[in-house]
Amino acid sequence: MKILLTGANGYIGMRLLPLLLEEGHQIVCSVRNANRLSITEDLKNKIEIIEIDFLEEVQPEKLPKDIDAAYYLIHSMSASTDDFDEKEEISAKNFNAYLEHTQCKQVIYLGGIVNETNLSKHLWSRKNVEDILYNGKAKLTVLRAAIIVGSGSASFEIIRDLCEKLPLMITPKWVKTRCQPIAVRDVLIYLTGVLGNENAYDESFDIGGPDILSYKEMMKGYAKSRNLRIAIIDVPFMSPKLSSYWLYFVTSTSYKLALNLVDSMRIEVITKDKRLQEMLNVVPITYNEAIDLAFKKIKQNEVVSSWKDSMISGRFRNDLKKYVEVPDEGCLKDAQTIQLKNPEKALENIWSIGGKRGWYYGSWLWKIRGYIDKVFGGVGLRRGRTHPNKIYEGDSLDFWRVILADKKERRLLLFAEMRVPGEAWLEFAIDKNNVLHQTATFRPRGLWGRLYWYAMLPFHYFIFAGMIDRIANS
Q: What are residue 206's phi and psi, to 5 degrees?
């Protein structure tokens, strides 16, 4: 089958893609920016990539006419707190308009469980998208899931941050709300199992794991799997806004995502039927098995995708291709060079920068800068990196975003997502003479931008000189 995969660079899309290829399907990946599809060149050679922004005017000629089925994995919950529902509605309607011009027979949509009458804005939007897709030309199959547990998932990473960092938690009352978590492995089994299955046409199915747990029980279950001792005290006076700030400062989540998550956490999300489980003969794994499987992937450095690499985890929604050309006019720079004795080792050090490896020099200063950034509404350092020594364009790297990562050309370019009064780039490039060039470029915004740069000069002097020396010689 020829399958359209939207949201191909998202958490689920990145994991679904290789499974569909293994089954012999022809895949068309739809992304807003082809450079942000973080997969190997070998995988890219097996698929067709098209650039479509479903929030913009429909251009039917962009989509192949011979599409047989499509996965709708688009959502905007983390992009804003006010109008994400409007954006999701526009995307769904435009998606239907694109498919009108194809031979697509089935659309598969991954939504949220909506078995309560009083829904959060997030869950209402998911149901609204479902209703819109039902009005499309193709037969619709809807999979409604609650919390998805897997290495790199937003829910897993939030629980992980809370339990690993806080042995004592004062928590809001929503920790008593029950939900039915499901392992990402099982979600993928369902997503592939319904493809081309006529018994699933024009049907909506709840999918969940075997455990019904409160968020408090989920945190305790995580702690048990990790042999951690935690104490949780829930109090009734923490407002949704205060709860959102709590999640924002303690975990790696963005404030917008935290606010929308807290709004949904007051609603029970429990499955009402097991029809699809019985139809596909699926035996879902337990919550603790899902946790153990996630850590197995983490330890083996096999995390395929992480929500932190999506653009919604950072500050910018713009097309980052425009930042590839580092400006010269009106910019302030710190340029360092060093002759390399072992360029291959230096290149590996560059490709391993950030995350647990750190920034090679003045780690405590980087951490302080991360804390300051978090206080002022930035992303801080908590995002880390998905893989210890692999980098793709579009990946998050602590409080940077990877703009260009060309190992053959020996060049890495990062763009700052931290809170700064201007725009900042950090570039590493090894020339043909095996000289490493490390350049920090800052385009200040007004007087405050210039004052910021000059105030940081004493720190830059030590940090950047020490960093290039360690990269070259460690």
A: -85, 140
Confidence of residue 180 (pLDDT cuts 50, 70, 90): very high
Amino acid, single-letter form, for residue 281 = N
User: What integer pLDDT is reported at residue 303 of this predicted model?
Assistant: 53
The token pair that represents 423 in the structure block? 């725009």
- Is the torsion defined by CA of 157, 159, 163, 165 positive or negative? positive
DSSP class of residue 34? G
- Distance CA(205)–CA(147), nearest Å, equals 15
Residue ranges of alpha helices (H) inside 70-165 are 84-99, 121-134, 154-165
- Name which of 202, 199, 190 is nearest 139 in CA terms: 202
- Phi/psi class of residue 230: alpha, beta or left (left: φ > 0; alpha: ψ in -120 to 50)? beta
Q: Residue 99: which of 127, 139, 50 has the closest Cα?
A: 139
Return the H-helix or E-strand segment holding 384.
Answer: none
What's the CA gap between 152 and 141, in Å, rounded?
26
pLDDT digits (tens, 9 = 90+) for 383-398: 777 778 888 887 888 8
* Structure confidence at residue 76 (pLDDT): 61
DSSP 163-177: HHH-SEEEEEGGGG-
| Beta carbons of 443 and 330 less than 8 angstroms apart | yes
Distance between CA atoms of residues 267 and 269, nearest Å: 6
Determine the Cα–Cα distance for residues 123 and 147; give it in Å rounded to an integer.
12
Between 131 and 356, the more confident residue is 131
Task: Supply the pTM of this predicted model.
Answer: 0.76
Which CA distances in Å does 84 have to 41, 121, 134? 33, 9, 20
DSSP for 37-68, please give it.
--S-HHHHTTSEEEE--TTSPP-GGGS-TT--
- CA distance readout (Å), 263 to 123, 130, 371: 9, 20, 26
Residue 344 CA to chain centroid, in angstroms? 30
* Residue 192: Cβ within 10 Å count: 19
Q: 295-306: string of b/e by CB count within 10 Å (b at 16+)?
A: eeeeeeeeebbb
Joined tokens for residue 471:
């990269």
Do 192 and 20 touch, CB atoms closer than 8 A?
A: yes
